[in-house]
Specification:
about 300 residues; 14 helices; mainly alpha; globular
Length: about 300
């Protein structure tokens, strides 16, 4: 077994983006219950991080497998995919997906027990169902005849799972309650995560169109997809400002603005882009900026 190939298929560079929502939701939830100490010492935080990483790796494995067997990765730009390149066989990737799904589900069960114990059985069932839904969503993005990534629904699922579920769900693990205000930063993270997917689809539009992968970019066309991209980033900024305005306690809360400097620059880069392959470098910038946003926002809330 070539471990390096599986590490490449796991796409480690996507992991910081995947845990951004957990960082924000956990920091807000931990702050809400007024526990003395640091959220970094909370077992709920680290189990939530591990669970999310597991879902992301599963999604990346499934994406590699699904696009590989459908031939969508034959002429792709950017880093090579393992199934399409032959480094990992479809059967081997299937096994990797099953193992990853089982391990992630076990960690999720431990997270649920630590968060809710035996006295909140209804909440445990709810979050177990959400865990199963996350596994199904991770796999069905590109796998199967009804893969939603091939019909333009990828953006919606990224928004829901990376934004709303990630932030609101992790917040609920601490507080056992919902707060309307928490949806504002959750929407921001969801929009920024969707912006990363949109950039990916802008880069791959021509190849996706040839391979009948009807992403939202393929449906909208490049010009409208760029405007959609501007909307996602600017709206993320607006919703975060709304949260800070409603829940203002310290000037430190606006430190998150530093993360939007490269994001605003990204809007300018995308607007001027003529060669889709050149957007590959922007993917990492937006993903890491989202991760930085999560850290700065959380620090600003805790100070």
């Amino acid at each position: 077994m070539d471990v390096k190939s599986y590490i490449k298929a796991a796409r480690l560079r996507t992991l910081p983006l995947s845990i951004s929502g957990i960082i924000i939701g956990s920091s807000l939830g931990f702050n809400e219950i007024n526990i003395v100490g640091s959220v970094l010492k909370s077992p709920i935080f680290w189990l939530a991080i591990l669970t999310t990483i597991g879902f992301q790796v599963l999604s990346n494995f499934a994406n590699d497998y699904g696009d590989g067997i459908k031939g969508s990765d034959k002429n792709r730009t950017g880093e090579a995919r393992m199934v399409s390149s032959g480094a990992i066989t479809p059967k081997q990737m299937k096994i990797a997906m099953i193992v990853t799904a089982i391990l992630t589900l076990l960690i999720a069960l431990l997270l649920i027990y630590v968060a809710f114990g035996s006295e909140n059985f209804a909440y445990s069932i709810l979050f177990f169902g959400l865990g199963i839904a996350s596994i199904v969503a991770a796999i069905k993005y590109t796998v199967g005849k009804s893969a939603y990534g091939y019909s333009g629904f990828g953006d919606l699922f990224v928004f829901l799972f990376f934004g709303l579920l990630s932030v609101v769900g992790s917040y609920f693990l601490y507080t056992k309650q919902l707060n309307f205000n928490i949806f504002l930063p959750a929407i921001s993270v969801g929009f920024l995560s969707t912006a990363v997917l949109n950039l990916n689809n802008l880069r791959d539009r021509e190849e996706d169109e040839v391979n009948n992968k009807n992403t939202l970019v393929v449906k909208l066309g490049t010009s409208k997809a760029k405007k959609y991209h501007y909307f996602l980033i600017i709206s993320a900024l607006v919703f975060t400002f709304m949260y800070v305005f409603i829940d203002f306690t310290s000037i430190y809360q606006v430190v998150f603005l530093m993360a939007f400097i490269p994001l605003i620059k990204n809007i300018n880069t995308v607007s001027k882009n003529k060669i889709p392959s050149e957007l590959d470098g922007e993917l990492k910038k937006v993903a890491l900026s989202t991760f930085l946003f999560a850290i700065l926002f959380s620090v600003g809330q805790l100070l």
